[in-house]
Write a structure and sequence with these properties.
Keywords: Hydrolase. This is Alpha/beta fold hydrolase. It is a single chain. The chain has about 220 residues and is an alpha/beta fold. It folds into two domains: about 160 residues, Rossmann fold, CATH 3.40.50; about 50 residues, no CATH class. It has eleven helices and six strands. The protein has a six-stranded parallel β-sheet, with helices on both faces. Strand 5, helix 9 and strand 6 form a beta-alpha-beta unit. Helix 1 packs across helix 11 and helix 4 packs antiparallel against helix 7. The longest helix is centred in the middle third of the chain and has 16 residues.
């Protein structure tokens, strides 16, 4: 019997609400119950994964930073992980000037200098709406969480090569912050990895499109 619970983590300064929109229904249709922790920051995300472990291997994953944290947890705890859903991975190993890390650092500086609304000037459409909803929930922790993410470490290619569990990777072909080439590099490094793609427009119109892509990739990786 496979895992019945899936623990999915949010991206940088995102939250469990967005995770639910992306993964809730696709996971339910696939027979999983979603656990979306209200975690803030890398340490809390790791603690949420540890707390979810109850003796049965888990399907874990997340969006962007959440995908990094969940995959790193799978590296450290191979016996606890039945599979990974990695949506929008942003880099491998140290951030080293990755677009998502630079964006997080710039956002932290802007939030500290002028506040949330000013920091989001020019961020329009569904992404602007999503950030304006999620960012205030972090309160005074927002800038610190953004800086922590910018300095965090993703799994290296060598570490990905040690993940025995199936990993479904999803990417947007037109996302400059989470480059498609990074997703391809992840899949190339994974022993049991597969990739499915969508677009930012599709994600904005239907957040579940990203969750469905990750689950389709996972199903292929599962074989």
């Amino acid at each position: 019997m496979g895992p019945s619970r899936a623990v999915l983590l949010p991206g940088t300064a995102s939250d469990e609400v967005f995770v639910g929109r992306v993964f809730g229904r696709p996971l339910a249709e696939a027979g999983f119950s979603l656990v979306a922790p209200a975690a803030r920051g890398v340490r809390e995300c790791v603690e949420a994964l540890d707390a979810a472990w109850s003796g049965t291997p888990l399907l874990v994953g997340g969006v962007s930073l959440g995908a990094h944290v969940a995959t790193a947890w799978a590296v450290r705890h191979p016996g606890r992980c039945a599979g990974v859903l990695a949506a929008l991975p942003a880099w491998l190993g140290p951030a080293d000037g990755a677009p998502a890390a630079l964006a997080a650092s710039a956002s932290a500086a802007a939030v500290e200098a002028a506040g949330v609304e000013a920091a989001l000037t020019g961020v329009d459409g569904w992404l602007g709406d999503e950030l304006r909803r999620a960012w205030p929930r972090y309160g005074t922790r927002l800038a610190g969480v953004l800086r922590e993410a910018a300095g965090s470490r993703a799994p290296t290619a060598a570490e990905l090569g040690g993940v025995a569990a199936p990993v479904g990777v999803a990417a947007c072909v037109d996302d400059p912050v989470h480059p498609l080439e990074i997703a391809r590099t992840w899949v190339d490094a994974l022993p049991r990895g597969a990739l499915r793609t969508t677009t930012l427009a599709a994600l904005g119109a239907d957040p579940e499109s990203l969750g469905r892509a990750a689950l389709a990739a996972y199903a292929e990786a599962l074989g």
